[in-house]
Structures are given as structure tokens and as C-alpha cells.
Write the C-alpha cells for this entry.
Amino acid sequence: MDWIKLTVTTTNEASEAVINLLMENGAGGVEIDDSDLSQVELATYFQAQAGLVELLPELEQKIAQLREFGLDPGKGTVKLAELDDDSWADVWKKYYHPVRLTRYLTIVPSWESYTPGSTDEKVIKLDPGRAFGTGTHPTTKLALQALETVVRGGETMIDVGTGSGVLSIAAKYFGVEQIAAYDVDAEAVKAAEENLALNGMQDAITVGANDLLAGIKTKVELITANILAEIIVPLIPQAYECLKPGGIFITSGIIVDKKDLIVSELEAKGFVIDQVLNIKDWYSIIAHMPTTDEV
């Protein structure tokens, strides 16, 4: 089977939004090349019969329309290149290798053999071909670092926009007791289920399709959301209603231009900001719902 490589040239600021557009149009994993500080190249792969020639102008238009949401997509160009099946497989193996993301976490592609360097190191197996992100983007690194900071063990948690399931898997390793993971995209739910199985956690974490926290009445101690800042805004009041007093809300996927907006929205709802983490222009915010003693 032949494959087509689709490459979008955009900016760091707009990369998460463009990735979301690619996912909405059937992309699996996305390669991120941000070695050039002035732009980012995002690449993904489709089966050759996927009708991408017809999709191209529509995708370029949607990328250009990101300006209406305050995001600069830069060039916003989309290119196609044909690959045979062997070339496609080699691409994944070329770009994805074991990566140590935090003090305790290492992400390992499903085809790689890897031996942890210490008893404290936890290995998360992911299949990048279906992973909706491989865990190596700064937004995911920040969310994992935040989890590592706040989890004490025994918590209940909701992972909003779970994607590959990487945050849920990490949280389980850290000692979170009960986890429900949701994503609005059914394909993302399927990918998360596959990755949970790779890590032997298919029975330990509940996964389902849901639009953010709409209709969720469960009260938990921890909520994570590594999603676009524009989507975090409507999530904030939902998260407040789903947290127990003192509960922690970790948000990531926030580009520098949106950081103040998210901080403002969190504080306006009543959250207390505990810590702001960043890698270059990407931010993660740790906040908590006040206890009765704080109100």
C-alpha cells in the first residue's frame, strides 16, 4: 500500500491548532520539526487513496482562518509527497526513539526494546502510528512535569482530551488510583485504548468519548487537560464543578500569547494559581480549587 506524506509549514504559535485540524481530517501521529526557530514543520501520513488533493485547498483555507482566532499560522503552506509502504514504516522508526521526558518517565515506541536505567524510571510504550502525539511535544512534557509535581498517590482523576492516553498512563504510574480519560474524537479514544493495552493498563483506566466535561457529574481530586488554549477557556467552569475542594487543575497546550488569558479566566472562576511552567513559548499552569479555609 502506498502512502502520502502531508507537510504543513506553520508557526510554533499555531502548531497545536494545525495538529488539531490534521486530526479532524484523519491524521494519526504527527511529526514535529521545530529545529528552525522561525517556523515549524508538521508532517503526517495518509493512505494514497484518501482524496488528499481535494482536501488541500480546504485545509489551507482553515489554516489561514486561524488568524480569526488570534493565531498567526505563518506561511500555512501544505505539501504532498508520495511514499511506498516501506518508506512510511522507516519514517516512524527514524523519527521516534526512546526519550526521557522527566526524572521518572521515558517514552518508548512500541517496536523498540528498552531497559530502564534505574528502578525509579517508568517506561510508557506508545505506538506513534496511532498515538495522536508521541509525548515529546513541549506541551506534553510540561503536563507530565506538572503531574510529577502534584501527584501524591491515591487520587481520583479525569484526563480531558486524552489523545494518546499518555497523561493517564503516567498518572497511573505516579500512583493515581482512579482515572477516567475522555476525548471528543472516537479515533483518539481508540488510539488511547490501544496504548493503554500496550502498557497493561486497559483494565485500570476508563476511556470514553465526551465533549470536554459536558454531562460529567463526578467529583475528583485532579483534572488534566493538554489541549488548545481556546478550548481550555470553556473547560474552566466545567472543571471547577468537577473538582473537590482543594482539587488540582493542570492545563497545558498554552502558547505564550494565551497565557495571560488562561490565568485571568482561571482566577475569575475562583481558581488559585499555584505554579506556571514553561518550555520556550509553551506554558502549563497548575491551579487548585480553594478549600473552605481559603474562601
Remarks:
- The first helix runs from residue 12 to 24.
- The two ends are 61 Å apart (CA to CA).
